[in-house]
Amino acid sequence: MTEEGLGEIVSALRESRKYRFLCGDTLERVARWAGERHSGRREIVKAAKRKLHQAYGAYLEGFNLSEIETIVEGVDPDWPDERLRETCLEILRRHASTEERIPFMAEAYGEIFRRVGRPRVILDLACGLNPFAFPWMGLSSDVTYHACDIDERIVSAVEGFFGRLGVEHSVECADVLVSAPEVEAEVALLLKTIPCLERQEKGAGAEIVRAVRARHVVVSFPARSLGGRSKGMREQYGGEMERLAAELGVGVEEISYPTETFYVVRKS
Predict the structure, then answer these.
(1) Do 135 and 192 sit in the same domain of this protein?
(2) What's this model's pTM, rounded to 2 decimal places?
(3) In a shared domain, residues 182 and 163
(4) Torsion angles phi and psi, residue 79, rounded to 5
(5) Domain CATH number, residue 7
């Protein structure tokens, strides 16, 4: 497929209400994938949309990010902690992936940072709404929070949130399957992301953990599907994490909760 043809496919994908806010790297990556397997503009666009649906459809479904942006616009840095947390909870409840983490969120971050130390620089990869858990992380006021996501609306909301709080930060629209952020961090978060990445590129999880410039990488896997079924997921992902750790030659510690299992990967 020519560069001109690629541009036409990306433009066609941007016309979709569902995928028009995805970053250019993601649309281009999937367009190239479809172009290598199909011929004809119509078939390529159809295949690309099907691939995007398989990878991101379940996550984006019923997810009103415009409402989240509106909530963020009202955040006041002078609010008492209780009101800020109430507002963040309202946002975290907007998606099942972060909502089910709420009951053990504070405990999980406390346990993670007890093991790796309180980072001065943290990197949140494919962050989704997780940065809105910041009030429960117990990080110092001079922390620098770097984050990336493929959805421009998430990037905008997270950027506005940290900007209003006065937290040192950088947020970029980026696809970790194309390039991992170059920032150096003490801790990188990769939460409930590897299964989605592996569906697109086999071996992507290990490659990203290897490439990310952080002393510790905290990886998590869901213990059940968004529909509530476990289907042996904890055992399946536990086995995958063991293989990943063996491949990378790194130490791993497990922290388990009813709906999510965290693995602290020590790269140094």
Answers:
(1) yes
(2) 0.92
(3) yes
(4) -60, 150
(5) 1.10.8.10
Burial of 98 (0-12, 13-18, 19+ CB in 10 A): buried
Are 182 and 199 part of one and the same domain?
Answer: yes
Instruction: Please tell me whether residues 167 and 45 are part of one structural domain.
Output: no
Q: Which two three-digit tokens encode residue 236? A: 């399946």
**CA-to-CA dists, residue 68 to 119, 193, 197, 226, angstroms:** 27, 21, 25, 21
Task: Among 20, 44, 60, give the residue marking a domain's end.
Answer: 60
pLDDT tens for the 268 residues of the chain, in order: 788 878 999 999 999 888 889 999 999 999 999 999 988 889 999 999 998 988 776 666 667 888 999 999 999 999 999 999 999 999 999 988 899 999 999 999 999 999 999 999 999 999 999 999 999 999 998 999 999 999 999 999 999 999 999 999 999 999 999 988 889 999 999 999 988 888 888 888 889 999 999 999 999 998 865 555 557 777 777 777 888 888 888 889 999 999 999 999 998 6
CATH code for the domain of 142: 3.40.50.150
Domain shared by 93 and 191, yes or no:
yes
In terms of C-beta density within 10 A (0-12 exposed, 13-18 middle, 19 or more buried), how is residue 35 classed?
buried
Q: Do residues 80 and 7 both lie within one domain? A: no
Cα separation, 257 vs 237, in Å, equals 14
- Interatomic CA distance for residues 242 and 251, integer angstroms: 10
Question: Which of 9, 26, 40 lies closest to 155, judged by CA?
Answer: 26
Q: Which domain holds residue 136?
A: 65-266
